[in-house]
Design goal:
Distance between the termini: 58 Å
Structural class: alpha/beta
Strand order of the largest sheet: 5-3-6-2-7
Mean pLDDT: 83
Strand content: 15-25%
CATH superfamily of the largest domain: Tetrapyrrole methylase, N-terminal domain
Low-confidence stretches: 10-14, 27-47, 51-55, 340-350
Length: 353
């Protein structure tokens, strides 16, 4: 029942659009506060606010700019200002970010690839005690080829709260700007630097039908492009994105052969993301199982590992990898165990998806 006369001291009832989704309205009220943002509530930029004034008992993963500081969101500023402690990849870098955001008194602790494992118990303990712990990396979202994933996993496994404040992504920025298909893609991070691990990774990338996003250090871009051209063929389309969102942002788009020439013509500087077009669809030429089995038997019998043999035979005959994998399992079951012991997933690798 509605009070017919709330009295002269009652707060005025705001006009609410009846068409607004109630869930959206609740979010707006949470982030702007009852004064519609005038109180300087969470998510509203304004005067510098002291750290440690927000909710407690949570790990908050905060996305930060990948180059342009203008991409730091109001919600990210609010989350960092509210944190009791902020774990960051490089405290010097993050202190500059806090200064830019007007956050004063932030407590910063390092969390990088060399000490993340040692910090896990410390972070879990802080969250369990009811503190708000934020995690940032130098750029982008922690856990994506950056520290943070192990801490998130441990806090979640302890049954504690983990929340994410999304932000800029080098993966998605490069993908969208590449001009290559975006409906299906995968992310490979940094490829192994050398050895059989690198060769295996290149074979998998070459056979991948989806668009592939890869990170690479500027000094190794030319070599990686050459290796990709050899593995995928010189005509495979690629985009090389460097210095994303920064003053000297650049996209090179062309074939792998053209990219090799481009990279070899000068020094590639800055952070680099490679976006590789997927492998073209190949029609099954009607190769019989007997032909494939013979090719597999020759190489598996010579002691080669299943993973590489399956990749090579599927590519050589232009047939689906799953089909070759299943035939390889049959050959292995007849000829004995994998030389040197089974690889993870049984006879060489998990079944292809």
């Amino acid at each position: 029942m509605t009070d017919p006369d709330p009295g002269p001291d009652a707060d005025p009832v705001p006009d609410i659009d009846p068409d607004i989704d109630p869930d959206i309205l609740e979010e707006l009220e949470f982030w702007t506060g009852p004064d519609d943002g005038e109180s300087g509530g969470p998510g509203v930029p304004g005067e510098p606010v002291p750290a440690g004034s927000g909710p407690s008992g949570a790990l908050v993963v905060v996305g930060t700019p990948i180059g342009n500081l203008g991409d730091l969101s109001p919600r990210a500023v609010a989350a960092l200002a509210a944190a009791d402690v902020i774990y960051c990849e490089d405290t010097r870098h993050s202190r500059k970010l806090m200064s830019h955001a007007g956050i004063v008194g932030a407590s910063l602790r390092s969390l990088h690839e060399h000490n993340e494992e040692d910090r896990i118990d410390e972070v879990v303990g802080a969250v369990r005690e009811g503190r708000t712990v934020a995690v940032v990396s130098d750029a982008g979202l922690p856990g994506i080829s950056d520290p943070g994933a192990r801490v998130v996993r441990a806090v979640a496994a302890a049954g504690l709260t983990v929340t994410v404040v999304p932000g800029p992504s080098a993966v998605l920025t490069a993908l969208v700007g590449s001009g290559l298909p975006t409906d299906r893609f995968c992310f490979e991070g940094f490829l192994p630097r050398s050895g059989k691990e690198r060769r295996a990774a290149l074979r998998m990338v070459a056979a991948e039908a989806r668009t592939v996003v890869v990170f690479e250090a500027p000094g190794r871009v030319a070599g990686t492009l050459s290796d990709l051209a050899e593995a995928c063929g010189p005509d495979r389309p690629v985009a090389v994105a460097r210095e994303l969102t920064k003053l000297h942002e650049e996209f090179f788009r062309g074939s792998l052969a053209e990219a090799v020439s481009w990279a070899g013509a000068g020094t590639v500087r800055g952070e680099v993301v490679l976006v590789l077009g997927g492998a073209p669809a190949v029609e099954d030429p009607g190769v019989g199982d007997d032909v494939l089995t013979a090719a597999l038997s020759d190489r598996l019998g010579a002691g080669e590992r299943t993973r590489g043999v399956v990749d090579d035979v599927a590519a050589a005959f232009g047939v689906p990898r799953r089909r070759v994998y299943e035939l390889a399992l049959a050959v292995r079951s007849e000829g004995g165990p994998e030389p040197g012991g089974p690889e993870p997933g049984g006879a060489g690798l998990p079944p292809p998806s």
